[in-house]
């Protein structure tokens, strides 16, 4: 067996100092941190969700209204565009009255030509020839086909495919 050296070496001194610094730093952090506290340094943007915050734990003094954003989900089977949720695919064919009734029975509404155009532009969904709630009354959109490839007819009695829309939430 080797004889243990009785004198201090540089490595022994540094190891002892490291142990005391580590223990002291952990004790200091434990003593100064508030129970269940989270600081802005420890949170990544977008990482806190509603389920992470206890019920009735935030009050007006804790909230900067200018930084809040609420994102409401769309129901399954729909696509979001312009803050609305549209059926992802067409529902059969129907005249204007039948399409409006079908949407109402589903607690939804038949979108306007302008709303369908937004779905086409923002969502990349082809809505060419679909039924819209304002086809009979709003003829100002008859030029819609010239800039987006969407054909619009004001014939409300003609059966055509349609999709319903709903407000997110």
Overview of the structural elements:
By secondary structure, this protein is α+β, with helices and mostly antiparallel strands. The chain has a domain at 78-166: Roll (Mannose-Binding Protein A, Chain A), CATH 3.10.100. It is 29% helix and 10% strand. It is built from 4 helices and 5 strands, in the order αβββαααββ. It has helices at residues 10-32, 96-105, 113-123, 144-148, and strands spanning 78-81, 84-87, 91-94, 160-162, 165-166. The chain has a 3-stranded antiparallel beta sheet. A two-stranded antiparallel ribbon has the order 3-4. The longest helix is centred in the N-terminal third of the chain and has 23 residues, at 10-32. It is elongated, with a radius of gyration of 32 Å. Residues 140-148 have low confidence and may be disordered.
| Low confidence ranges | 140-148
Topology as H/E string?
A: HEEEHHHEE
**Relative strand content:** 5-15%
Q: For the record, give the distance between the C-alpha atoms at the N and C termini, rounded to a whole number.
A: 76 Å
Helix % is 25-40%
| Overall number of strands | 5
In spatial order, strands of the major sheet run 1-2-5
Radius of gyration: 32 Å
Overall geometry comes to elongated
CATH class of the domain at 78-166: Alpha Beta
Mean pLDDT: 77
What's the number of helices? 4
Q: Describe the main β-sheet briefly.
A: 3 strands, antiparallel
Helix-and-strand structural type: alpha+beta
Any idea what the CATH architecture of the domain at 78-166 is? Answer: Roll
- Here the CATH topology of the domain at 78-166 equals Mannose-Binding Protein A, Chain A
């Amino acid at each position: 067996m080797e004889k243990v050296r009785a004198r201090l070496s540089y490595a022994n001194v540094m190891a002892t100092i490291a142990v005391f610094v580590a223990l002291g730093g952990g004790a200091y952090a434990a003593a100064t941190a508030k129970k269940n506290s989270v600081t802005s340094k420890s949170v990544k943007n977008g990482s806190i969700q509603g389920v992470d915050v206890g019920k009735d734990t935030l009050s007006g003094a804790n909230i900067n209204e200018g930084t809040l954003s609420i994102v409401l989900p769309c129901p399954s089977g729909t696509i979001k565009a312009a803050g609305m949720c549209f059926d992802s695919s067409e529902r059969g064919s129907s005249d204007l009255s039948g399409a409006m009734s079908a949407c109402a029975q589903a607690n939804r509404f038949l979108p306007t030509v302008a709303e369908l155009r937004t779905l086409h532009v923002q969502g990349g969904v082809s809505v060419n020839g679909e039924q819209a709630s304002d086809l009979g009354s709003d003829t100002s959109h008859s030029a819609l086909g010239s800039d987006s490839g969407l054909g619009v007819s004001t014939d409300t009695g003609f059966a055509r495919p349609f999709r319903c829309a709903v407000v997110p939430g």
